[in-house]
Amino acid sequence: MVPQDTVLFNDTLLSNIAYGKPSATREEIVQAAEMARLTEAIGRFPDGYDTMVGERGLKLSGGEKQRVAIARAFLRCPSCILHANDVNLQAFQLIYPARRVFLHASVFVVSFLWLSLFLDAIPC
Question: Looking at domain 13-121, does it have CATH number 3.40.50.300?
Answer without folding.
Answer: yes
